[in-house]
Structure prediction request, 927 residues.
Amino acid sequence: MSGHLLVANGISKRFGGLVAVDDVSIHVNKGEMVGLIGPNGSGKTTLFDCLSRVQEIDQGKIEFDGVDITKKRPHLVAHLGLSRTFQVIRVYRELTVLENMELSLQWGKVSTAKLFQKPDSSTRDKADQLIDFLLLSRLRNEQAGTLSGGQRRLLEIGMSLMSDPKLVLLDEATSGVNPALVEEIKVRLQILNQEQGVAFLLVEHDVRFVKDLCDRVVVLNYGALLAEGSPQEIMENKDVIEAYFGDDGETDAPEGNDTTVEAKSEGVI
Amino acid sequence: MRRLVESKAFRRVAVMLSLAVLAWLVVLPLRESTTNSTLFSLTLMLTTIAISINWNLTGGFTGYVDFGHAVWFGIGAYVTAILMTKQTSGLGIGWPAFPAIVLGALIAGGMAAVIGKATMRLKGPYFSIAMLGTFVAVREIVRVASPLTGGGVGLTLPPYLNRQLFYYIELGLVVALICFTWWLRRTRFGSALIAVREDEVGAEMRGINATRLKVTVFSFAGGSTGLFGGLWAFQNTFVDPDIAFVESRTIDAVMGTMLGGIGTVAGPVVGSAALYWLREVLWANFLDYHLIIQGLLLIMIVLYVPKGIVGLFDPRSTSIVTLWSRWFGGESVDAYGSSEDLVQMNDSADSTNDHKTEVTS
Amino acid sequence: MSQLLQVIINGIALGGMYTVLVLGFSIIWGVLGVINFAHGEFVMLGAYTAWLANDQLGLDPFLAAPLVFLFMMMVGFAVQKILVNRVIDRPHLVSLLVMFGVSIILSNGMKLIFSADFRRNDTALDGSWQLMDGVTIPVTKFFVLLAALGIVSALSVFLQRTRMGKSIRAAAQNREAARIVGIDVKKVYAITFALCIGITGAAGALISPILAVQPFQGPPLTLKAFAITAMAGLGSIKGALGGAMILGLIEAGLAIYISGIGTNLAVIASFVILVVALVLRPQGLFGGLRPVDAMAS
Prediction:
């Protein structure tokens, strides 16, 4: 299928006796935005780790852009154009924002000879553009460790975009981010998606974010696929609502909402 | 402070000062009053500086703290000694010194690549101790393989005592090594090493081939230390397992680097020189106590000056505390940690604990 | 056949010796998360104390061991108060280097006081029993083994049954949770460290008739403790016993079957085991680093 960018079939991952991901099949088409949701501990981040090859998988096959990456080392996967952010933010804390960005260039295109040269100006220009794009210019020369959580999220998104990826896995890109900035991120992601055709797979707690952005939503529960469909279908899906309310009553309800449907789904996810 | 350090004037002064020191070191052997023993002692200081620089490449830049680095020194020394005494070349028994030393360095570097490939899969203290184990094991192997190495008796090399020549060779090599690290730190390769130190998983996800980088630099450091081992063997004209493989060479490298500032270009040089000077003073006045004082000093550095001498001037330098907290995520909050960090860390701890509890139940 | 039997006997005897040597190291790492690089030096201190007790008071090392235990507990308590407390919450390298500083100070301090001479501590439980033709039991090591088993069972009972023991296990598993339920974690750490140094010192007393007492006997013992702990899992008493027995059997086998250089090979073997075990099971060992996994027994 030419439209498929990422195809993962029958992914399973166990930690000792715990089945964290259970026979999950998921795909992302070129230029598509897919949301991945599920209650806490449903295996979203583990699935991300499997897809980006941070974790070895026990079973299944992953194909990216027509290449079998099931056994590929993580840096080679990154060279193919799959990029990601992490739930626990991974930025190089003692380097400046600019250095962080420069270090996230497309390493696959760096030849051995270029490895032993200073970073060239095109990398810097690109880093500067992205820094502006993500509204971080003020912090360009600050050490990443001194940034707030939300700013670091933005920086990490920027880093994941430095390598001109075809697909970005965003792990909770909005958690800890100032609500005003969330809107901004949303717009930026949409621009990237529409203008450059970057595909996104996002794990999100903010349901409105998913609803506004995604073409398709996949729901995980207890490591297994629970439902898949358009955002609207998912909101009305009985299994999904049960999965969230059946587990425990205490779910995190983010900022205020206006309609009851919204309120319900915010509470749900 | 930061402004002062980053100012042009400060840098100019620092460069002038280093050049003055270098000039003095170059002129020193030409003075009448300089004895051979002073020269030999200074040559040993240069060796220590070189080992510290090499140690800092893996320990400071890449974040892999090696407790067995002296093993490459011993291997370089032994390969040189074996080639010069046991192998036949065109001129009869014994290779000439120059190719023997070079081959010693190459073999040390090659072995470092092989061993590093295995041990560098380990993190934190496990890597450190695996290297210490490698060191002890290699020393025993050398002791056992007596047909080749002469066993516990050791090997005696053809004497060639030209202290001045060795001094100048090592001075040149150390200067080259300093320039090399200075240059390397500024290349993409150097920044990628820092990325690996800061966050290896993250670096890999950004497309950096962490394994290749760290093994390359480990192998270079091993080969370079092996080169100085070969030079030492030739000057010392005698090797046995207990003097070629000495723990204190690693200890001196670690202490010198930490005293000077781990992960900086100037740190190992400044620190090792300071340690050398300190030891001369201690040796002279407190012969019996000097190691005890050194132990106290180590504790003091670790607890109170973790950024080292250079760190006092360079606000951007790293400290061993932050360096090692990478590997153990939530275990310590570094100086920059904000309250959001704490929340983050708790989040991650919770999610891992979830797995843990379910695994054990 | 008799040679094999001899290997097994020697191996188990050696394993008993390694068990007492490794227990304190393993538990300190498991509970406090501190890699005690001065472990061998505390063994050495215990050995010197036992030697002094024999030299001055004529006390047999096996009788002196309980006294050495109490004395070393006090030493451990002091070291904990002065140094270890400061490094508990810091990364491993910090505690590793600080304890390394302690080891330099202790070994060179003892050299200053006692000189670098090798000393032998005598015991009445000496010699060997003839079991059958060509098979002997080394008496001293046999009694060390008995003492090791005694210490292991006492420690297990202490950790399983007593209130303090349960607190130690709780603190090892989750420092924060233990704090929340009202366990005085600082006190738990102080007691754990003191107890472990006490055991380590007693181990030094027990092996003083076997290994020559000298200021620089520590580092190889620390490395062996590390090898066994890394192989067997930290903080686990059963692991310490099992790992010590495996290493003992391998070393005894090499020493008997390969004459001449067997002892050197035994040293190599323990580190080859260490490196191979570390490299082949990195994920398991990496998980084992977390104090969460400690005290599995």
